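step=predict obj=tRNA-Thr(GGU) m(6)t(6)A37 methyltransferase TsaA n=218
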Amino acid sequence: MEFQPFKIIPIGYVRKDDELHETFIEILPEFAEAVEGLREGDWIKLVLWFHESDTPARRKVLKVHPYGNPKNPLTGVFATRSPYRPNPVALYTVRIHRIYDSRLYIDWIDAHDGTPVVDIKIFVERYDCPKEVPIGEREAHIEMGRMIGEMNIIPRKSEHLDELEEVSPEEYDALILEIGPKTTTLTAKELKDLVKALKEVYDSLPAEIKDKLGEPGC
């Protein structure tokens, strides 16, 4: 099999300030706009390139002793977090404590100062901590998803309605609701109650504010 190389470029670097005991991600200027939307307190996924393990010899290591302890049996690298692997990619889940210019101050991680950052993705519980949920990914109408502030509202696809005659509104899960990294589902009954509650809140707004907003849905 002939391997075709592909290009990965750093979008920033891990920086360690030992005197201040701080760890931060320094985003390169050309990628600064990509930080917009991240907030202090957000959890993110960091994809790093362990450049110090990027050698022909280390890329050929397919089995290691987990945690570097020879007392542990040799194990395939795909079943470990070892930096020795065919492609030395590292993955961390960290929290942003502070954002200053193009620096993201995060939790301490064991990556070395100067480690290239390949990508940053927002942490989403539904993807990153999968569990049994009433609405499977195939049933989620992703294209109809709406973001409102920190909320992401994803409705369920309206298919197989002929099979729902015996299903009550209390049993039918209607949508996925993501608030920040947290995910929950709402039944049709809960959705109706939420819409009613939101309408009451909207109706109680000062008239001056409602006049500026226009009619709901406009």
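step=describe
The chain has a mean pLDDT of 88.
step=end
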